[in-house]
């Protein structure tokens, strides 16, 4: 299987090249400079060369706060860019895996969100990703939408930030009123790889199991790495960030459950593995 990856330099994009059990897959991974999803000429040239069987569309405008003041840029990449990739997939009969987010939900639920719950994004980033889902679904028949949450992997992420600050500061203040499921990008890449070998098109939630606040996540990172920094809880309101965030965005991998079993491990196990490496 020839598999093209957009956003190949991102946390998820990089995870695919770490997978070891993909002998039947030839990966073609691109940075935004090599394959800018807003550049239809570049897309045509690359799709014509590779003729991919499947496309993992992980490239996105992911700066949640910046999106509030750069809505056009976020929509251009996350909606128009997704349209461009979906159209190329239609033309070359490629399967499309569009990576989406827990931020499509408003966080007002009291139970983990399934694929059948109604999205209602609170911020521009979430809106643009949801519109990306819709435009992909209108164009590409062989589509899997994969929503994930609180992703970490190679590159800049929350874990690195906590470990760096833990060395520099006496205490850290971390938000304790947002609840989600931290997800190891390698686990997600493995889940996507399994899915793409099926014909089971549709929308999927793929996150590590369980839930925590950012504060609990930070405490576990510090505990596992044997640091001793004091981590104090604060509220989202105290941070006063430009973008609103869902207070509760735990995803239930319900479509996987219906298909025979949710094979994702707990967020604690995913984190432990990441830290060991
Ligand atoms: N991080 C999370 O917590 C999280 C949670 C839920 C869902 N997601 C979704 O998961 C996917 C992967 O996220 P991530 O954390 O791996 O992202 P990331 O580390 O922030 O990387 C973003 C990637 O998108 C690429 N990109 C940006 N603009 C592009 C453009 N115009 N054309 C092509 N590529 C472009 C970047 O390329 P360059 O580096 O070359 O600029 C980079 O490779 C995204 O779709 C994101 O919306 C992420």
UniProtKB/TrEMBL annotation:
Q: What is its EC number?
A: 1.1.1.133
Q: Does the keyword Ion transport apply?
A: no
Q: Which SUPFAM superfamilies match?
A: NAD(P)-binding Rossmann-fold domains
Q: What biological-process GO terms show up in the record?
A: dTDP-rhamnose biosynthetic process
Molecular function terms from GO: dTDP-4-dehydrorhamnose reductase activity
Write down the Gene3D superfamilies for this protein, in alphabetical order. Answer: NAD(P)-binding Rossmann-like Domain, UDP-galactose 4-epimerase, domain 1
| CC terms in the record's Gene Ontology section | cytosol
Q: Where is the RmlD-like substrate binding domain?
A: 1-276
Q: Which Pfam families match?
A: RmlD_sub_bind
Q: Which InterPro entries match?
A: dTDP_dehydrorham_reduct, NAD(P)-bd_dom_sf, RmlD-like-bd
Q: What this chain does, per the record?
A: Catalyzes the reduction of dTDP-6-deoxy-L-lyxo-4-hexulose to yield dTDP-L-rhamnose.
Question: Which NCBIfam families does the protein's record reference?
Answer: rmlD
Provide the family line: Belongs to the dTDP-4-dehydrorhamnose reductase family.
* The name this protein goes by in its record: dTDP-4-dehydrorhamnose reductase
Provide the organism lineage as a comma list. Answer: Bacteria, Bacillati, Bacillota, Negativicutes, Selenomonadales
Task: Give the gene that encodes this protein.
Answer: rmlD_2
């Amino acid at each position: 299987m020839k598999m093209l990856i957009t956003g190949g330099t991102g946390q998820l994009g990089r995870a695919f090249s770490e997978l070891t059990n993909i002998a039947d897959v030839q990966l073609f991974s691109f940075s935004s400079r090599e394959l800018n999803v807003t550049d239809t000429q570049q897309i045509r040239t690359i799709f014509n060369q590779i003729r991919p069987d499947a496309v993992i569309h992980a490239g996105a405008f992911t700066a949640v706060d910046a999106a509030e003041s750069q809505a056009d840029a976020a929509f251009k990449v996350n909606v128009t860019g997704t349209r461009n990739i979906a159209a190329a997939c239609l033309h070359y009969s490629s399967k499309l895996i569009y990576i989406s987010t827990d931020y499509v939900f408003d966080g007002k639920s009291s139970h983990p969100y399934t694929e059948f719950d109604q999205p209602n994004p609170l911020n521009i980033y979430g809106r643009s990703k949801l519109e990306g889902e819709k435009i992909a679904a209108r164009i590409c028949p062989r589509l899997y939408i994969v929503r994930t949450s609180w992703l970490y992997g190679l590159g800049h992420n929350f874990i690195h930030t906590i470990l760096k600050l833990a060395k520099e500061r006496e205490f850290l203040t971390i938000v304790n009123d947002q609840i989600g499921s931290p997800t190891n990008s390698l686990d997600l890449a493995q889940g996507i790889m399994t899915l793409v070998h099926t014909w089971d098109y549709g929308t999927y939630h793929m996150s590590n199991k369980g839930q925590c606040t950012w504060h609990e996540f930070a405490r576990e990172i510090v505990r596992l790495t044997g640091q001793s920094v004091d981590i104090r809880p604060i509220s989202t309101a105290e941070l006063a960030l430009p973008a609103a965030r869902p207070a509760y965005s735990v995803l239930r991998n319900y479509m996987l459950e219906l298909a025979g079993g949710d094979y994702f491990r707990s967020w604690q196990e995913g984190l432990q593995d990441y830290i060991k490496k």
